[in-house]
Amino acid sequence: MVFGVIVSSREAPATRSTHPLVPGNVLVGAGDIADCESDGDEATAALLDTIAGAVFTVGDNAYGDGSAAAFATCYDPSWGRHKARTHPSPGNHDYETSGATGYYDYFGANAGGRGTGYYSYDMSGWHVIALNSNISMEAGSAQEQWLRADLARTSQRCTLAYWHHARFSSSSSHGSQEQTRPLWDALYASGAELVISGHDHTYERFAPQTPDGSADPDRGIREFVVGTGGSSHYGFGPPLPNSEVRDSTSYGVLKVTLGPDRYAWRFVPIAGHSFTDSGSGRCH
Questions:
Q1: Quick check: is 88 in a domain?
Q2: How large is the angle between the packed helices 142-153 and 181-190, nearest 10 degrees?
Q3: Cα separation of 72 and 214, whole Å?
Q4: Does residue 105 sit in helix, strand or coil?
Q5: Based on the structure, what is the number of domains in the chain?
């Protein structure tokens, strides 16, 4: 049986997340999604039409500038069908509109605190944390301190986190984003299982590893890069040491099924594409 994990964090004071318990045990989504010059987002939205569960996004929701018009014209007709069950995170293109006002106005309370955009919720025995890689992530920053406090408060055994800029990526376009390391440091110290990101328009799965990229099958975090929501495709450079699976040809979504002490994943491609990836793991 396939299970999955996801972690998401939220903003400001060290109070409990205002996001309610999310029912069900499936988390499904992608990043780098809606571009009016492509129909890839409509094809991936058609996948969401057939998959029950909570929807996550890992940024760059509405190209090119995250404006109210981009959300209304490009995102809303496709992934917007699932807005009520979506738990988003923002990307750099969403921030091309000052303060990401288009993003915060569109998603409302589901986006976390305006200007902060990080929040957490519990789901099927998992603690899920949505973070914002477009604001400060430095050690000691408000977001990093909030994350450590949020992780210390949770009573859930398993943790999954997601945000836009990938800590590790073999793509020839953006590649690994060192500035996200303080988030990994906090998550690794707490024993988190999974991180999901986008930014590079590829699919890539990594073996469990430490924040510096060393293999760690016992305590490491498994990362997925899922920038396959429909905007475009990027290429790959030389694969990083712990990269296990890569694809730069298929749009699709990552479906993560969460169990009380384990998880399973499956990459679901759009109609007409055959690439897929699946597997499972256990919580630390």
A1: yes
A2: 10
A3: 43
A4: helix
A5: 1
